[in-house]
Amino acid sequence: MASVVFILGAGASSHTGAPIMRDFLAVAEKLLKIGQVNEYSDDFERVFEAIGKLQSIHSKFQLDLSNIEVIFNTLEMARIIGKFPNGDKEYIGKV
Questions:
Q1: Using CA atoms, how far apart are residues 56 and 1, in angstroms rounded to an integer?
Q2: Per-residue model confidence (pLDDT) at position 64
Q3: pTM for the structure as a whole
Q4: 3-state secondary structure of 55
Q5: Continuous H helices in 10-40
Q6: Sign of CA pseudo-dihedral 85, 86, 88, 94
Q7: Using an 8 Å Cβ cutoff, are 53 and 10 in contact?
Q8: Most buried of 25, 39, 40, 86, CB within 10 angstroms?
Q9: What residues does 84 pair with on adjacent strands?
């Protein structure tokens, strides 16, 4: 049995073009614009629309709107409390 263990972080595959958290949304937006998301384009557009709606509360909260984890956490909180800028519960569920 080998006594060496290699621990690789999430960025270990970034040299192959795999998106990392820092640029995940930028890559997703690029894929949407060039038509590479096929039947998921409505879902991608809905997420980017929600990010746009979060701009309206950005001055009241410190949100990193370029971080997919922050976006998903914010959407989860909106689902729990039932409120989202310019959106009802049905909208939150779709996003």
A1: 57
A2: 85
A3: 0.72
A4: helix
A5: 24-33
A6: negative
A7: no
A8: 25
A9: 87
Are the beta carbons of 69 and 21 closer than 8 angstroms? Answer: yes
Average pLDDT over residues 65-81: 88
CA distance between the termini of the chain: 48
Q: Which helix (H) or strand (E) holds 89?
A: helix 89-94
Question: Token pair of 28, please?
Answer: 């997703």
- Residue 60, φ and ψ in degrees, nearest 5: -95, -20
Q: How far is 70 from 21, CA to CA, in rounded Å?
A: 11
> What local confidence, expressed as pLDDT, does residue 58 receive?
67
Taking 80 as the threshold, does the pLDDT of residue 85 lie above it?
yes
For residue 87, the 8-state DSSP code is B
pLDDT at residue 60 tops 80: no
Q: How many residues does the chain have?
A: 95
Show the DSSP H helices in 15-88 as ranges.
Answer: 24-33, 41-54, 68-81
